[in-house]
Structure formats: structure tokens, C-alpha cells
């Protein structure tokens, strides 16, 4: 398996609902509920984007919580070290006091002053003890102040971590709710696509709000933004009469499918092994095919730009699961395919 392509980090927060701009007449007679079909496709596209945003927010929050928890754990470790230092200092002070007591015979300081052989001797002894006592007390005081600061930092870090954990729990619920709604909408969208394929009648283009691409007319992109590569060009298998003629992208139903480059729609069809499919013509005499779709967002004859959403992935036709079948061809017909991975690589797109 090849690695995933990740969504760009810059995604509009809480994307507004995608609206249907227009729905051109279907190639078959209109059926009741076609407006609902259009709304469903838009709903799937909207939920797809919202799920991506929710996932990014959740993952970012989880990473932030882990970092904050690490800071709290480091603060606790510093506190433990400070406590051990204070315990050692207190023990040292105790030893000094005990030694002083033993050397003075247990007499009070006033008695030692009376019995001292000389004032200088007494003062030296008392000064040494006072200095040691002062040094230990200063060290203890310093460490206790440091401990208080560390305790405050630990409490702050722990509180922040707990707040992040609470927020992440809320994000997880939101994410799960969006994904549940998305999955339900995907099932309904695929059901409508299967019905259209069975009838052999493609519906009209479902007009979706287009994302900001910024690729320009001369740019090239992968046919889907986030994916895992599955069946490759030229691979064998029981599902194909000869060899696999394209590159499969494992993606969920309803994933926006993009035009890989500037081109014109030369075919939109339903039925057959490819289910719902789109074929584009590009400069230089090459064609690209997008198959097993659940819906289309363009009509035959339209011009498209790189990154433009031209449909939504599905599992129509001869398909064992949700994916996009992508081909690069020298003619619009089956049987003229070239390796699509190499073809895209030659145009600066590495899969």
C-alpha cells in the first residue's frame, strides 16, 4: 500500500452548507425526487468537508493535550526532586543540631558562655553552628519557594490538560455525529446511483459549490485529494477479462472527484462495467476516465479546470467496494490506456 495523501491543513472552519447552484436536465426523463437527489449529493459533499475539519480539529486537540500532559508530568517530576532535596537538607540540619548538642554536653547556650574557656572560643563555636544553620535554612527556604512555584505550574498544567481532554471529548462526539450522518447520506447516495445505473439513465449534473483550487489552467493534480492506492495498472485478477487498465483509489462513497487537468467533458454515461463514468479530453490528445461514480457534477461538452469537482466517488458497475477507477488514454475508448501513475508523474503529480 502507498501512503495517504493528507488534506491541506488550511480548511475553512465550520464550512457553510454547500448549495446546489443548478441541475441541468437529465439524459433520461425527469423522475420525481430529482431535486432530492441534488440535495443529497450536496449534503454528502458538505458532510465530507465537515468531517475532514472535525477530524483535523480532534487530532490537533489530541496532540495538544498530549503535549500539555507531558508538561504536567515534567512539573510533577521536578516537584519530586525538590521534595527529595528538602528532605536531605532537613536531615543535614538534624545531624548538625545533634552534633552540636553532643559536643556541648546538652547544656544551654547561656551555660556554655559562662563555662567557656574564652569568649573567642565560644563565639567561634556558636558562629560556626549559626552559619551552618543559616545555610541550611536558606537552602530549605529557597527550595520551598521553588516547590511552591512548581506546584502552581503543575496545577496550571494539569488544569489545562483536563480542559483539553474535556474539549477533545466534545470534539470526538461531534466528529462521530458528523461521520454517522455522512455514512447514512452515503448509503442513500449510492442507492440512488445504483437505481440510475439499473435504469441505464444518467441524471443531470449535480452542481456543487467548488473549492478554491489555485492550480491554474496549466496545473495537474491527483483525481482525489485523500486516498489510498489499491489495484494498480496492469495487475491481474478475476474481476478483469485481461489486465487492470487503470489505477484504483480506495476512497469512501461521496468523495469529491477532481479533474486532473484542464479539459473538456467528452462522455458522461451510466451502465456497463464502469457504472457511472466521466471521460475528459486534455491537450496533447490524451483522455482521462473516472469510473464507478455515485454522481456527476458536469455535463458533456463542458470545459473543466484542474482540481474542479466533476463528480463523487461510489461503487457502481463492476465494483467490489467504494473506489475511484482512474485511467489515462490515448483515445476516449477502452483499450487505449497507458500507465496512469507514470502519466501523472510526467506532469508533476506523484501518487
Characterise this structure.
Helices cover 47% and strands 13% of the residues. By secondary structure, the protein is of the alpha+beta class. A hairpin with a 7-residue loop joins strand 9 and strand 10. It is rod-shaped and about 120 Å long. The N and C termini lie close together (11 Å). The N terminus is likely disordered.
- Average pLDDT rating: 78
User: Biggest β-sheet, characterized?
Assistant: 10 strands, antiparallel
Count the DSSP helices.
Answer: 4
User: What is the general shape?
Assistant: rod-shaped
Low-pLDDT residue spans: 1-36
Rounded Rg: 36 Å
Computed structural class? alpha+beta
Helix content: 40-55%
> Count the strands?
10
H and E string:
HHHEEEEEEEEEEH
Strand content: 5-15%
Distance between the termini: 11 Å
Key structural traits:
single chain; disordered N terminus; 10-stranded antiparallel beta sheet; 351 residues
In short:
With 351 residues, this protein is an alpha+beta fold. It has helices spanning 34-103, 109-115, 119-199, 340-345; strands at 228-229, 247-250, 256-258, 263-269, 276-281, 287-296, 303-304, 309-313, 324-329, 337-338. Strands 1, 2, 3, 4, 5, 6, 7, 8, 9 and 10 form a 10-stranded antiparallel beta sheet that branches.
Task: Give a topology summary.
Elements: H1 34-103, H2 109-115, H3 119-199, E1 228-229, E2 247-250, E3 256-258, E4 263-269, E5 276-281, E6 287-296, E7 303-304, E8 309-313, E9 324-329, E10 337-338, H4 340-345
Antiparallel strand pairs: 1-2, 2-9, 3-8, 4-5, 4-7, 5-6, 6-8, 6-9, 9-10
Helix pairs in contact: 1-3
Amino acid at each position: 500500500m502507498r501512503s495517504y495523501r493528507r488534506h491541506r491543513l488550511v480548511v475553512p472552519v465550520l464550512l457553510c452548507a454547500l448549495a446546489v447552484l443548478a441541475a441541468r436536465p437529465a439524459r433520461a426523463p425527469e423522475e420525481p425526487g430529482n431535486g432530492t437527489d441534488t440535495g443529497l449529493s450536496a449534503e454528502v459533499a458538505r458532510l465530507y468537508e465537515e468531517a475532514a475539519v472535525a477530524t483535523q480539529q480532534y487530532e490537533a486537540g489530541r496532540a495538544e493535550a498530549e503535549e500539555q500532559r507531558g508538561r504536567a508530568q515534567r512539573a510533577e517530576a521536578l516537584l519530586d526532586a525538590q521534595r527529595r532535596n528538602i528532605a536531605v537538607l532537613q536531615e543535614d540540619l538534624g545531624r548538625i543540631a545533634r552534633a552540636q548538642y553532643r559536643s556541648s554536653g546538652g547544656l544551654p547556650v547561656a551555660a556554655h558562655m559562662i563555662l567557656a574557656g574564652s569568649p573567642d572560643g565560644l563565639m567561634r563555636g556558636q558562629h560556626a553552628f549559626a552559619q551552618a544553620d543559616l545555610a541550611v535554612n536558606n537552602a530549605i527556604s529557597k527550595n520551598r519557594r521553588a516547590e511552591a512555584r512548581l506546584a502552581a505550574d503543575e496545577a496550571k498544567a494539569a488544569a489545562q490538560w483536563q480542559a483539553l481532554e474535556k474539549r477533545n471529548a466534545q470534539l470526538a462526539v461531534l466528529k462521530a455525529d458528523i461521520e454517522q450522518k455522512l455514512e447514512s447520506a452515503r448509503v442513500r447516495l449510492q442507492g440512488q446511483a445504483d437505481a440510475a445505473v439499473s435504469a441505464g439513465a444518467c441524471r443531470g449534473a449535480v452542481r456543487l459549490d467548488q473549492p478554491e483550487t489555485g492550480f491554474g489552467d496549466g496545473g495537474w493534480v491527483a483525481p482525489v485529494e485523500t486516498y489510498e492506492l489499491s489495484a494498480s495498472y496492469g495487475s491481474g485478477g478475476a474481476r478483469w477479462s485481461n489486465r487492470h487498465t487503470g489505477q484504483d483509489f480506495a476512497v469512501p462513497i461521496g468523495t469529491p472527484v477532481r479533474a486532473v487537468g484542464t479539459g473538456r467533458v467528452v462522455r458522461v454515461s451510466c451502465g456497463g462495467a464502469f457504472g457511472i463514468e466521466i471521460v475528459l479530453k486534455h491537450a496533447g490528445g490524451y483522455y482521462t476516465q473516472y469510473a464507478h461514480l455515485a454522481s456527476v457534477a458536469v455535463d458533456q461538452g463542458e470545459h473543466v479546470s484542474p482540481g474542479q469537482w466533476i463528480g463523487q466517488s461510489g461503487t457502481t458497475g463492476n465494483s467490489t467496494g467504494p473506489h475511484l477507477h482512474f485511467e489515462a488514454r490515448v483515445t476516449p475508448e477502452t483499450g487505449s490506456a497507458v500507465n496512469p501513475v507514470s502519466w501523472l508523474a510526467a506532469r508533476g503529480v506523484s501518487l
